What does this fold into?
Amino acid sequence: MKAIRTTCLAAATLGLAWSAAQAGVTVTVSCGTVGQDLEFCKKATDEWSKKTGNTVKHLTIPQSTSDILGLFRQMFAAKSSDVDVVSVDVVWPSSIKAHLLDLGPYAKGAEKNHFPAIVANNTVDGQLLAMPWFTDAGVLYYRKDLLEKYGEKPPTTWDELTATARKVMDGERKSGNADMQGYVFQGKAYEGLTCNALEWVASYGGGSIVDAKGDITINNPQAAKALTTAAGWIGTIAPTGVLNYGEEDARGVFQKGNSVFMRNWPYAWSLSQGADSPVKGKVGVVNLPKGGDGKPAATLGGWQLSVVKYSKNPAVAADLVMYLTSPEVQKDRAIKGSYNPTIPALYKDADVIAANPFFGTLYETFVTAVPRPATATGAKYNEVSAAFWNASHSVLSGNAKADDALAKLDGRIKTIRRGPKW
Ligand code: GLC
It folds into this structure.
């Protein structure tokens, strides 16, 4: 009896016996368009459709999270029911809380299977506004074959990365690959640069822009040192084009075999190991370097799924969210698409670890990643982030010196805060 009950429980937790309250309904979902986002999302929504008899339409959204937020804000302002389920960046729940449905009654405790910190992030004013879908942290990709060829090890400091990138890049260019770069990352003026620049700053001990108490901490010498170091890469180990790179631009260069190092999120792993990838079998993944005697820092990223308040079919939409975020779907996405699960138990799954060895070696990095100051700044986070990415971009482009840019940024963030409190 006990054994039977355990098996049923396991089947239910894995979402094997799925059934929605209603059939014959059409819901529209936005899943993302970076890398394999759409393909994997469609696969899972097709499965749900088969199980429930409902239909799913996919809304095409931009690649940049900053642009997606702009689009959603317009749709929310119009109380549009054109989209039922939205993908929600980890930094958004407080700022778009007014437009999301409380999923608590639908989750029925399923959220307890997920990392408590992410659930806490997604719970605003006591309401579970988003179910965790996958988590993210910035990691360093490197060319194993090239480091071996030049007798180098993966770098642990930014100075080591700079020196190794230079040496390997110069050597490869001399031996005929004129396109070889040393380091590619996300340097465009958007949220992705906020993530990269926060990693540099935090790894130099320069804090996280605004601290948990809401104090503005960014104007400090360690932060200036971090940005100055990064500015030194432009046109040396990184192409000047990196000032306009998002995730997919960096991945394009690295995956073609034209960069020694790349900063990216875990999704790039499975693509780099694809049958048609020129760098298949030649890639390693480690922690990002630290600044001097600081500590390595990875920005916490990740996506959730929410039901929009203006949906005409909230119960069916919520059922889809529960399916897409279930252990069964998260496991498949982890194995085939290197999307980090938000369910701790899946990091002990042998198949998940075999497909993504760094999910095991970098587990601590994923659970201790540095959050952007979205909780402290609340609805004003996007404005603060835009001020930070613009200041960082001006330093990278050589238009401003780091200490001047940070002093100005401090003033700008104070203006955004308007007063002593957020
Ligand atoms: C990834 C992260 C997300 C972040 C974005 C920046 O999608 O998961 O949290 O905001 O990259 O480009």
In short: Residues 65, 89-91, 136, 191-192, 195, 247, 265, 301-303 surround alpha-D-glucopyranose (CB under 6 Å). The longest strand covers residues 300-307.
